[in-house]
Structures are given as structure tokens and as C-alpha cells.
Specification:
Layout lengths: L1 H20 L44 E8 L3 H11 L13 E5 L1 E9 L5 E7 L5 E8 L3 E6 L7 E7 L2 E5 L2 E2 L6 E2 L4 E5 H5 L4
Parallel strand pairs: 1-11, 2-6
Antiparallel strand pairs: 1-3, 3-6, 4-5, 4-7, 7-8, 9-10
């Protein structure tokens, strides 16, 4: 009798455990789904997608965080402005980015600095004749219209672009050697003044 009692007790325990481990059967119209498990950080599913500005249409080169467009010197600006409005900003209201901030340091050459992603910081410092930063002209997440470099030899401004862990520092100028626009690492550079004249 004791053996039978032990066997019955063991069977009862097995039935009880089985009912605990078996998922409940959904009733009509009811659906059970497993508890979602978050992806570990760093996986493709959790990767942070960077939001690009709507005005940034000039280059999608991987690694770039900003663009530097040379808009000419003196009276060349008007033609370069018309060129970029049609080529890059035709879909924007007024064909120009909103909230463009202006910075001036011994103005002659004109550059348009465009952050690629939202959250990018553009900081511009004025330089003295020895290349030392003497004043911060602007620090913003908006585009910057920079007027600088009255001298072809001595630059008067320095730009710093920061996005997340990436920082690039450069001095905008036109190379006397080959006429190219000098930007920096991770910066797309284009001579829009030359393009506006139809010069290849």
C-alpha cells in the first residue's frame, strides 16, 4: 500500500509540474506572443540612424560630416548663389537653407559650410596673422556663411566640425597651387564659383 501511495504521489507531482511548464492555450480571438528580447547594443538592429539635413544633397560620400562650398569672392557670390540654389536647394523653401548664420573675419572670400547631420556643431574662430585663434565667431548647429581671407596668403578663419566622436579642423582657402578648395578630412569641398562660370 505504501508503494502504491508513493507512486500516486509521484504521478500527481509530475502532472502538476507539466501543467506549470505547458503554456496556456489561447481562447478564441486571443493570441499570446513571447516577451520581446532587446537586441544587445552595437548590433545592426539597434544601430543609431543619423538624421541628415534636408539641405544636404551635394554628396553622400561615406565618412563626410559636412560640406564646404566656395561661393566666390566679392561680386562672384551672386552667380554662385544662383548656381547652388538650382543644383542643391531647388526643393527648399526660397531655395536656400533656413537659419544660415554669418561669420566674418577680414572678409573677401565667401564659403558656405553645411553640416550633414542634425546634431553636428560648426564652430568658427578668427585667426591672427600668425594663425592663432583670437576670437570665436560662431558655434552653431546651423549652416554658416563664412566671409574671410582678404589675403591670398594669410588665412583669417578656422572651422571646427564635430559630430558624435568625429572632429575635423580646417582652414578654408583656395590653393594657390592648383586652385582647389581646401577643406578638411570628412568634409566635401566644391568650387561653386568656378562651376557657376561654366569653368571645368
Amino acid at each position: 500500500m505504501k508503494k502504491i501511495a508513493h507512486v500516486l504521489t509521484a504521478l500527481a507531482l509530475c502532472v502538476s509540474l507539466t501543467s506549470c511548464l505547458t503554456p496556456p492555450t489561447p481562447t478564441a480571438g486571443q493570441r499570446f506572443s513571447p516577451t520581446p528580447v532587446p537586441y544587445p547594443s552595437g548590433t545592426a538592429a539597434s544601430a543609431n540612424t543619423d538624421v541628415k539635413h534636408d539641405f544636404y544633397t551635394m554628396s553622400d560620400r561615406q565618412g563626410d560630416i559636412a560640406a564646404l562650398l566656395f561661393m566666390g569672392a566679392g561680386d562672384e557670390f551672386s552667380a554662385a548663389e544662383s548656381y547652388v540654389k538650382e543644383k542643391y536647394f531647388s526643393a527648399l523653401k526660397d531655395k536656400w537653407p533656413e537659419n544660415v548664420e554669418t561669420a566674418e573675419a577680414a572678409a573677401w572670400e565667401i564659403y558656405l559650410i553645411l553640416p550633414k547631420y542634425k546634431g553636428t556643431t560648426v564652430t568658427v574662430h578668427e585667426l591672427d596673422s600668425d594663425g592663432n585663434a583670437v576670437a570665436e565667431l560662431v558655434s552653431t548647429e546651423n549652416p554658416v556663411l563664412l566671409k574671410c581671407n582678404v589675403s591670398d596668403i594669410t588665412p583669417s578663419a578656422k572651422a571646427t566640425i564635430r559630430f558624435k566622436g568625429v572632429e575635423t579642423v580646417f582652414i578654408p582657402f583656395i590653393s594657390l597651387e592648383d586652385g582647389s578648395v581646401s577643406g578638411g578630412d570628412n568634409v566635401y569641398a566644391e568650387d561653386c564659383a568656378k562651376a557657376a562660370k561654366g569653368v571645368g
